[in-house]
UniProtKB/TrEMBL annotation:
PROSITE patterns: ZINC_FINGER_C2H2_1, ZINC_FINGER_C2H2_2. GO terms for molecular function: zinc ion binding. It comes from Frieseomelitta varia. This is C2H2-type domain-containing protein. Pfam families: zf-C2H2. Signal peptide: none annotated.
Length: 92
């Protein structure tokens, strides 16, 4: 049986009214606690070592390589520039 609307809310309130109180930190941990790998240069944090390595290789301490010819916005990755063109400079 699928619970909707007030049924689901009543169940949630009944659970919350017991000894345990739900707080946002219990439901989802803060982002900072999930970032195990920190860049030594800029302090940016990443959950995965591969993402930190990519950041250090392509972004940290470097200027963006890709620039929009229309609005001059700059991007580190080519796919970001492509997405920018498709969403900002195309006629729907």
């Amino acid at each position: 049986m699928i619970k909707i609307g007030s049924d689901l809310m009543n169940e949630f309130e009944a659970f919350e009214s017991k000894d345990i109180k739900l707080i946002p930190e219990m439901i989802r941990p803060p982002l900072a606690s999930m970032q195990h790998y920190l860049c030594g240069e800029c302090g940016k944090g990443y959950k995965w070592m591969a993402n930190l390595r990519r950041h250090q290789r392509l972004e940290c301490g470097k200027l963006p390589k890709h620039r929009c010819k229309i609005c001059r916005r700059e991007f580190y990755r080519r796919y970001e520039l492509t997405n920018h063109y498709n969403t900002k400079h195309t006629i729907p």
